[in-house]
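Something for you to look into today, if you have time. I want to see for myself how the chain folds. Leave the record below and I will have a look.
***
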Amino acid sequence: MRMLCAALCLALAAPTQEAPPIDELLRATPSGLCVVVGAGDGRTAAALADGGRRLVHVLEADEARVLAARTLLETKKFTGVATVEHWAGSGLPYPENLVNLLIAETPVAEADVLRVLAPNGAALVKRDGAWKTLRKPRPSNFGDWTHWRNGADGNMVSADLAVGVPTGLRWVAGPAQDAGGKKWYYDHILVSAGGRNFYDYDEQIVARDAYNGVLLWTRPIKAPVFKERASRCLPIRRRR
């Protein structure tokens, strides 16, 4: 109880901080993984978590600010959507191409920010008292898989030039494709375009961010089931 009161007193007594100009970035990022470096008074994290469609992770070196930000987010019932973690490391604790939106009020190397940003992601960093916007374009050698067999022509050779040997697992989310061994994977269709994965299940279509697996939306739909079946092969007659 004393810690809670201390956190509230700290939040009330702290000087009003200039809020980062995030309105445009919020409209451009209605969902996805958002990171806040430097909790401040917690209001930036609360603005990102509002609506429940963004997953927010806050990094803060000051333990008192961690407590104050957690208290604010719990008061606004954002538990499970926004998390505040004590962090005092020198580099951002994320793999590359993961974060959709990053807000940094404390100094972070721009190279590290661009490393963790997902393609088409954006960051707002504070430099010398002014806010600077960083954007990470999608690499030109990335490809899409927009149909059951890559493209409308059915050619399963992808134009993606960035693909290589798998070296790890990025994320796990959603229902198992197999459904306990009762279905073949042919009952599920996956297509990917523009950094989004679309899963066509029996009763719904699910969209997830391709880089971090965050749920974007679901739509109920009764989709036709497509299955491959072996065709009968006719014997080849040789000419004599």
Observations:
- DSSP finds five helices and ten strands in the chain.
- Residues 143-153+175-226 form a domain with the Thrombin, subunit H fold (CATH 2.40.10).
